[in-house]
Amino acid sequence: MSLQLIRPDINLDFVGKRHFFVILSTVINIAAVLMLIFVGLNYGVDFVGGSVVQVQFDKPTTANAIRDSLKPIGLGEITVQDFGASAGHTYLLRFEKVANIGSLGPKLESQLAKNYGADGAKVVRVESVGAKVGGDLRRRGFLAVIFATIFMGVFIAFQFRHTSWSFGAGAVIALVHDVLVVSLALVISQFQFDLTTLAALLTVIGYSVHDTVIVSDRIREDAAKRRREPIATIMNRAINETLSRTILTSGTAIVVLIALLAFGGPILRPSAFTLLVGFITGTYSSIYIAGPVVLFWEGHHRVGSLSSRAA
Amino acid sequence: MEIGLKTGRGPYTLKEGAPAVRGGGAIVLTIVLERGDGIERVLLRCAIADEIAPGDDSAAILARIAPWIEREFEMTREMALKTIRGEGRMLEIVFDASHRGPF
Question: Domain limits of chain A?
Fold first, then answer.
């Protein structure tokens, strides 16, 4: 007996509901742009410069106690993150503006020794990024996302050039949608946006385009077989035919990401969250964004034009 | 005691981060690996079995470990940072009869 989650003859009307979902996505995308402008991402040290210091205490303490003990040396605003009891009283301190980052480790250790004893607190890691380097990394990260999106679109457009250039346009718009939705989720959650999160965002772009290719390829195949059917019917059939694969692939990836989000610890949480939101959005956009763009591009053409090119 | 290392990432220093602990047939050193300009610092532990370094004090052991860390610098630094970032604990390198390292 084979495992069958989706009936082979399933016929859900995805295309018929496209207007609702296009409007919904547009609203979410506009909200994302506004939130990015007026609230902004919570950039990590990688992108704004500063220092990350990991301190291991020999007994439990609190974020406020750590801040209070470091106040006399005037290091400015300190963000303190608890790694949890399982990590053995480890705290992550973030400093955004430190005048002399070179001597931060010994300075912190001697100050903490006054409150926690000589061996009460150990600075086990210091990583610093200058403000100029941070700004440069932010600019490069931004360009990486833009280039990845554009080149993915160009690649899809080239691959589907004999059928229609609209597939490339659909892929780019779907990718822009995914990046904006993930950015909105990051702005709302205020998870730290650092190099790891950027890598996760680029992974989302790769995943999303992969999902879009599967659906687009089936549309191309079906268009060649059923020349007299309207493109909307072909598209709906293609989405239904690939639905089982889409749900199984995305579902297994999402289960892994939920586990990573729940048990991966605070360091992995922002990237796991980015991937989780991105994979869900990428699956959604392959169906409700990339498809409608192709449909809009092709207008009310009979499939004849598309299918004759696909054949 | 502080030992200078010449690495592909510029000068680093190696020093003891805590008093060495002897017991269970090994001596455990807590080592601070710090970049010359101080913008990076990572702690790691080295456990050296008594059978390969009997009676050596921590300074002598550190002097023997330094060239090895200098040679294996990239891997050691990366692993030490990853272990602390990901697992919240210090990397522990064990040198014994099966993995003698610099001993």
Answer: 15-44+133-310, 50-129
Chain mean position to CA A71: 36
> Which of A123, A146, A9 is closest to A57 using CA atoms?
A123
Closest-CA distance of chain B to residue A157, Å: 40
Q: Domain residues for B30?
A: 2-95
Is this prediction's ipTM beyond 0.90? no
Architecture per CATH, A50-129: 2-Layer Sandwich (3.30)
Tell me which chain B residue has its CA closest to the CA of residue A125. Answer: B42
Residues 100-139 of chain A whose Cβ lies under 8 A from any Cβ of chain B: 101-106, 119, 122-128
Instruction: Check CB contact under 8 Å for B18 and A119.
Output: yes
Task: For residue B100, give Cα distances in angstroms to B28, B31, B45, B49.
Answer: 15, 18, 15, 9
* Contact state of A126 with B40 under an 8 Å Cβ cutoff: yes
Q: CB-based contacts of A256: which residues, under 8 Å, 6+ apart?
A: none
**CATH code for the part of the protein at A15-44+133-310:** 1.20.1640.10
A55-68: per-residue pLDDT in tens? 988 888 888 899 88
Interval A213-249: pLDDT, tens: 888 888 888 888 887 788 888 888 888 888 888 888 8
State if pTM tops 0.80: no
